[in-house]
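The data are passed on as follows:
___
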Amino acid sequence: MTEHSPGPMAGQTVLVTGGTGGIGRATAAGLAALGARVGITGRDNARTQAAAAQIAHQAGSQAVDAFAADMSSQAEVRSLAAAVLTAYPRLDVLVNNVGGFWATRHVTADGFERTFAVNHLAAFLLTDLLLARLKASASARIVTVSSNAQAMGKLDFGDLQGQRSYSGSRAYSQSKLANVVFTYELSRRLEGTGVTATVLHPGLVRTAFSAEDPSLLGKVMIPLLRPFMKTPARGAATSIYLASAPEVKNVTGRYFAKCNPKPPNKAASDTAAAARLWQISADLVGLTPEP
């Protein structure tokens, strides 16, 4: 992109959560290179500011903004939403990218299991808080990063937060299925608003994923698999496609991998379970029920 070519996303504003590294950072860089104004979130303010400056330099853009927020904290998600609404009069794309894996059970400041809080509740709450701005900016897009682990996921409504029995892989698979179920339900609720909701599997990507608290299997397998993993730039391809491609402008309620729609876990089509997950999530994050 040159100064004389503003790019296909010129005039559009995008927020990418978890944008300081890995897939999120590559997504932000790709969308900035297409001409969008991009905001990224990260836990550490200095690191997020530095990442934003590096992405701007890499993309040849002056419009990359940093928002510091720990997405495991509901108070910080709410503060983030307020800051984004103040900074951006319009919001064309929200990319719910932030996520993580923890082999052992951690509890957040709000008393929630961290995998469920970061991978599902953060996206659920942030999306709700930004929804009016997205609707006002329609046509707008909500893109959520899941994982192929959703295929093995099961929504255990009797123990959603692993209090009785915790397994890192089970918690992760459940949270990634929750991303898909949330997206499908969101797309139904957004029908006719001009806002679309899609969800994706980025592929197996070389990132710092699970570095904080890796499983024993992960410690053994990840070094062996690393040569076969995608670069973050390749892993971001489907996120960038769903956020920007004209041909998917009106596509909603679909799961994608390698920039193509794929059938997800059968549980994604269980509308009763989706409504139940939505209500539980709304209660947990303290959203007032819609009339």
